[in-house]
Give the backbone structure.
Amino acid sequence: MTRLNYSARKINGIKAGQVLARDLKKRSATGSAPKATVRDPCLEIDISRKQLTDQGFAQFADELIHALEHEDESSGARLRLQELHLAGNELSVESLEKLARVVALGCRDLRELDLSANCIQVVTSREKELWESFLHAFDGCFVLKKLDLSGNPIGAAGLEAFVRVYVRSELDFVVDDEGGRAEPDEELQQQRLDVDKENVRQNGGSPAQTPRRAHKGCSPTAPENSLKRYACTRGLRSVPFIILSNISMTDASAVLLAAVLNMHSAPDRLMEFLPPGKSITVPKSADCAGGIVWLPNGRLSSPACDLLRTAEKLAQPTVDDGDDSDLHESLNGLSIREHREMTQKLDTMHARLLKRVRLEALATEGVHSVQLWSIALKMIVVSRALLLDDKTRLNLSQAASNGSARTSQPTGARLTCGPFHPDMDADTFDAMFPALGAVASSSGTAKRGALTQKATKAVPEHRAMVTFRFGLPLKLWRRIIAEAVGAEGILSRAQQDRVLEYVTNWGSLEQEMSVSGAAEHQQIWKMLESVGCFEYEG
């Protein structure tokens, strides 16, 4: 393992970048010392707090990319970047273009990336594009243990892009021949035991005295036959620890992040699919239950913090999630009945906090503070203006009669969607939110370990084939409207279908008219809740 550590050297700025570029050139497979690369290809770089700025980073970025791309002609060896520490260097989003290339080239080897305490801010369209491209560079990473983005003024737009990429990243646990979930093999368990003993010797203590939040990860080189197992978990969802403290998060951001906390797997579980290695620690001040560290964030209100805490607790395994061997550990000394009662209380608390924070975010920050909400509302408005008219109402009534006959439903039954189903008890919604009138709520409780989603269906076939304006079917109108309002890549296909099902339903319009006296943000909340567009879907 070669460590290029410049923390003790009295060089800063562009000069520090030039020195690192020179050292990388020597270490590359095409440099003056290719035998060193063949003998020990693993590399760690620590150039933290050297005031590099974007100009200093550019001095060595190209040389690093070149070193990762090229192999030694005789041996096939190349540099394998395992750690990159760039904290406190005044880097902006402009440096992320080349850094994304570095991450993509190191997808099989990169264990830790530290970008904390920089100047990464996401506001303009270009900044959003560079930031999202950088996040997508992690799609191929499968041995990354820690990503530190703390101390950057990323802002609400940057956090939203992070949530969007995270939710849609892959996470597939390996399965054995019988179709069950595989467990770490004996060789891997022995490697972890050896690493634990080595860490204990270095710390001068017993296993019980090792740091509580220190976790074991990757060895300097992972066996090639183990890469298939490790590659089963990849992308941002496979990273055990992601540090998001002090990133200028808002309450609207908290609504989006709650779904991520709810679906993030336990770090110990993710570590089972990583090769062993040295300890990884997270900030000691972090008071977070899961692997995503979001505290502190000074702009978050107290209800938003409570929402994120309950989302973390709901993500923890429950009695029904584990087998008998895990039962006593998961209960923490509680009986099964007490544990289930506690879980039900958490579900109720989470639902109330989620509704409250959503309403407050819409009232204080506005619907346009989140791109997902803004585009969903825009699609609702445009779709209703184009598709809802008296002629369509007649066609839908005929289609409903034909469709209900095929499904053994009473002839003439009204087709509805979401919370406006006539068979639902209106008292449910009244009890939760009386200001909006009699509309049944469909928010439900969050499913632990998975993204909170509404149980919805695609547009029924007999409705999808009904012709609307210009003789076009609903399926084609969905594509046209989604392209026009920019919904592609933001709203999932299921969300787009729910919007069209909602706006072509005369019953939903009647319900909206009945509560037209409510505040604007309350009416918007009702519409977004009806179509399930408060959170990103995969």
